[in-house]
Amino acid sequence: MVKAIRVYDNGGPEVLKWEDVEVGEPKEGEIRVRNKAVGLNFVDVYYRKGIYKTALPYTPGHEAAGVVTAVGPGLTGWKVGDIVAIGGNQLASYTEEQIIPASIAVHVPPSIDPIVAASIMIKGMTAQFLVCRCFKVEPGHTVLVHAAAGGVGSLLCQWASGLGATVIGTVSTEAKAAQAAEDGCHHVIIYTQEDFATGVDKITSGKGVDVVYDAVGKDTFQGSLACLKPRGYMVNYGQSSGTPDPVPLSALAAKSLFLTRPLLRWYNTTQEELLECCNEVFAKVESGTLRVRVNHTYPLSHAAQAHADLEARKTSGSVVLIPDAV
Fold it and tell me: Please, which domain of life does this record's source organism belong to (predicted)?
């Protein structure tokens, strides 16, 4: 038996229960992994609340890194002791140990700490597909990143700036503004002090931005559309403030705008895409191009407190849960 977080009802952080669970042995095509670190993502909140549906009861979590403790029969390319990571494919990582399909795992380079790996899988791959494939950021583009001091936002700012774009970030506090500036934001708007759409208009001299990366949703959506230049791209990849109101086509037609609501799983549909994406993320971390900010760690058994702090916007950068047995 090992310990894991279990959810029996949708609701607030209090529904996250710390319990004993059975793990068993890996079958063909599977590996068993003892987690060293588990990534916390806002999508975990969506599942907990029931915004995203899954069968109850369940163990939450989509992101972790750990050591292989057993390999299923006939499986090659994996051995006990390998350090591996998963991200974005399987719902069940809030546990001390888990069995996963080997096809969704990747080997972690020796130079990358498992805590960093657990924090970078989903967030790093999300940043990669957003700036390289969803909308291909190039030199000369102007980019608006909401929640610029968040886990994904921090990486988006660094990646887009490294590609030669002018990056505008929005944050809630002076401290987060300082972090966003360190992460490559050329202009930082503190939205609690200034209307961000007005700020963007001033910064761009009324021209607007080429693309908005918006993980906030309802509270920022209409303002984000207003910030776009003609033929601009509205990329809504999250909804931490709630689901945006429906958008009439005429609102897009006004400036011939593009609107997309992308999900990571549709950009890594094959193992080849997964490996290519992960390898690029790991390479940027190893080279120092991406600075991974693991600003908060909690014991896995305290996942409820971590969720509460994340929702209250008390966190910045990446949040990682450490299994109590580590």
Answer: Eukaryota
Pairing of strands 187-190, 209-214: unpaired
- For 320, the token pair is 């990682």
pLDDT tens digits along 258-316 = 999 999 989 999 989 999 999 999 999 999 999 998 989 999 999 999 999 999 989 88
Angle between helices 151-162 and 114-129 (to 10 degrees): 60
For residue 72, give both structure tokens: 């299923």
pTM: 0.88
Q: Closest Cα partner for 215 from 126, 121, 89?
A: 126
Q: Which residue has the tokens 């908005």?
A: 212
Side-chain half-sphere CA neighbours of 105 within 13 A: 28
- CA nearest to 86, candidates 111, 52, 120: 120
Gap between the Cα atoms of 211 and 257, Å rounded: 10
The predicted-structure confidence for 21-53, as pLDDT tens digits, reads as follows 999 999 999 999 999 999 999 889 999 999 989
User: Tokens 């929702």, residue?
Assistant: 311
Give burial (CB, 10 Å; 0-12/13-18/19+) of 269: exposed
How far apart, in Å, do the first and last CA atoms of the chain sit?
Answer: 15
